[in-house]
Every structure is written in structure tokens, then in C-alpha cells.
Specification:
Layout: E1 22-24, E2 46-48, E3 70-72, E4 80-81, E5 93-95, E6 103-104, E7 117-119, E8 127-128, E9 141-143, E10 151-152, E11 165-167, E12 189-191, E13 210-212, E14 230-232, E15 240-241, E16 255-257, E17 265-266, E18 279-281, H1 291-294, E19 301-303
Parallel strand pairs: 1-2, 2-3, 3-5, 4-6, 5-7, 7-9, 8-10, 9-11, 11-12, 12-13, 13-14, 14-16, 15-17, 16-18, 18-19
């Protein structure tokens, strides 16, 4: 039923297909969904409703979908997220990206305790607080990049105890307290590129493996992140590199990108603790390197572009 210019759906459309497992209504002209549309669809596991004109959903529309695991609502016209998902006890992935969402009501995620992945990027959100993700205890992946977030209030990570991947890139976080990530102890992947950041606290992220901080305003970076394998901090005004980026004795870092950081001086001895380093991207900086330090690394490849 995808890509058929469908604009309306009868409430009993699926009455004779009670064993329906997969439903795709993507790329149509649907604006409204009847409250009783899924009353006979107890076996549904996947619903695709992306690329429609949906502005709002009615509370209870998913009331019988206890087996639903994947719900795709991206590229619609949703403006406010409400507690529409109360009955979706098996929901694993919720995609509401590329809408016009500017508000997430309290308790929206309270009842979907098995939710693992939430995609809410490319919307209009301007703040999040300690109630925004209330109840989302099992959430592992949160992509909230490309919004208009300027305020993070209270302990927003209070319920995100199992989060392993967070993307908040392309938000203006210049006025956010540096310690807003404290408590995300299971986090392994963090993307914060193009956020106008000047400094950030990362000491609680003991399991962090991938960190992307490109296109910010960071002038100094030195952290004890022994588990980190990939650090991308290009296009920041570091200027001088005279302190270890990673000051752990047992650094796991393999990939380092410090290109286009206006570096006019690098004390390469500060890299000697990075014994696992394999790739160093350093292009776009007005410096030359001392070859004796490059030869110190067995597997190191240096890229000047």
C-alpha cells in the first residue's frame, strides 16, 4: 500500500487480515488515522507510516498492538509528542525524525519500557529536562541531533542509565553546563559536532569508545579516557598542543583527527602514550612534524589532507 497517494483509510480496513505482520503505508497523503484502525491487527510487528502528512495521533490508536516492535513516523508533520504509545510494551525502535516536533510532553515514553532506539533528529526541539525521557530506562540509542536545543535542565540523563549511543550534534549547546553528560556511564558513542561547545566534562564516561567533537570552539582538550578508540576533534581552535589529549597510561586510541585546528605547534612527545595509534589526520595546520616521533609508532599512518 506504499506510494499510492492514499489520503484516507476506513476504520475497518484490516478487519479481515488479523494475521497481518508487516504494514507499509509510507509515501502517501495520509493526514489522519482513525482511532480504531488497528483494532483487528494484534499480530502487527512493523508499521511504516513515514512520508505522509500526519499532524497528530489519537491516544489509544495503538491500544491493541502489544507485539509491535518497529514504528516509523518520520517525515510527517507532527508538532508535539504525546503519550500515544502506552500499550506498545514490545516496541523496540521508534522513528519520529524529520517532523516539526517542538515539544515532548511528560510521560510520553513512560510506558514503553522496552524501547531501545529513539530517532528524533531534524525537528524543532529547543529544550529537554529531567522529565523528557522519563521511563525510558532501557533506551540504548538516542539521536536528537539537528534540533534547536539551547536548554538542558535538571538531570536529563536520570532515566538513561543504559544509553550506549548519543548524538546531539548540530544544536547550540554553548550555554549548557559542561557536566550535562554526567551519569551516562554506559555511553560508548558520543557525537557532538557543530554544537558551539567551548568546553565539556567527560570524566564520568568511562566506557566511551568513539567521540566526535568536530566544528566546535574548543581551545583545550585533555581527558583520561582510556577506553577511547576514535577521537575526532577537527576544526577546533586548539592552536597549541602541548598537553596530552588522552592522559591515560593505557590508552586504546587508534584514530585521531586534529586536522584544521589552527595548530602552529605540536609537542609530539605528548602522543607517545598513544601506543595503539594507527591513524593521525593532521592536515590544514600550519606546522611541520619531527619525523623521529612518527617513527616511534609501528603502525601509524599520517594523513595531511
Amino acid at each position: 500500500m506504499a506510494s499510492n497517494q492514499i489520503s484516507e483509510l476506513e476504520s475497518d480496513l484490516f478487519k479481515d487480515t488479523p494475521m497481518l505482520f508487516y504494514l507499509s503505508l509510507r509515501n502517501n497523503l495520509i493526514k489522519n488515522l482513525d482511532d480504531n484502525l488497528f483494532d483487528y491487527s494484534h499480530e502487527l510487528v512493523i508499521i511504516r507510516l513515514e512520508l505522509n502528512l500526519i499532524e497528530c495521533l489519537h491516544k489509544g490508536i495503538f491500544k491493541n498492538l502489544i507485539k509491535l516492535r518497529y514504528l516509523y513516523l518520520s517525515n510527517n508533520r507532527l508538532k508535539v509528542l504525546e503519550p500515544w504509545f502506552d500499550s506498545l510494551e514490545s516496541l523496540d525502535i521508534l522513528d519520529v525524525s524529520c517532523n516539526q516536533i517542538y515539544e515532548i510532553q511528560n510521560d510520553t515514553f513512560k510506558s514503553i519500557r522496552n524501547l531501545k532506539t529513539l530517532l528524533i533528529f531534524s525537528n524543532q526541539l529547543f529544550e529537554i529536562n529531567s522529565e523528557t525521557f522519563k521511563g525510558a530506562h532501557n533506551l540504548e540509542t538516542l539521536r536528537i541531533n539537528a534540533n534547536k536545543i539551547k536548554g538542558i535542565y535538571g538531570n536529563f540523563s536520570r532515566d538513561l542509565i543504559n544509553l550506549t549511543e548519543l548524538d546531539m550534534s548540530e544544536n547550540n549547546l554553548s550555554f549548557i553546563e559542561p557536566g550535562f553528560l554526567n551519569g551516562l556511564v554506559k555511553l560508548e558513542i558520543l557525537r557532538l559536532y557543530n554544537c558551539s561547545l567551548k568546553n565539556i566534562e567527560l570524566y564520568s564516561l568511562v566506557n566511551l569508545k568513539i567521540l566526535v567533537l568536530s566544528l566546535n570552539q574548543i581551545e583545550f582538550f585533555s581527558h583520561n579516557l582510556s577506553s577511547l578508540t576514535h577521537l575526532n576533534i577537527n576544526n577546533n581552535p586548539l592552536v597549541n598542543l602541548s598537553n596530552p589529549l588522552i592522559h591515560s597510561r593505557n590508552s586504546s586510541l587508534k584514530f585521531l583527527d586534529i586536522s584544521n585546528c589552527m595548530l602552529n605547534y605540536i609537542d609530539l612527545s605528548v602522543l607517545t602514550n598513544l601506543t595503539n595509534l594507527e591513524s593521525l589526520r593532521i592536515g590544514g595546520n600550519p606546522i611541520s612534524l619531527n619525523i623521529q616521533y612518527i617513527n616511534y609508532f609501528d603502525k601509524l599512518k599520517v594523513y595531511f589532507r
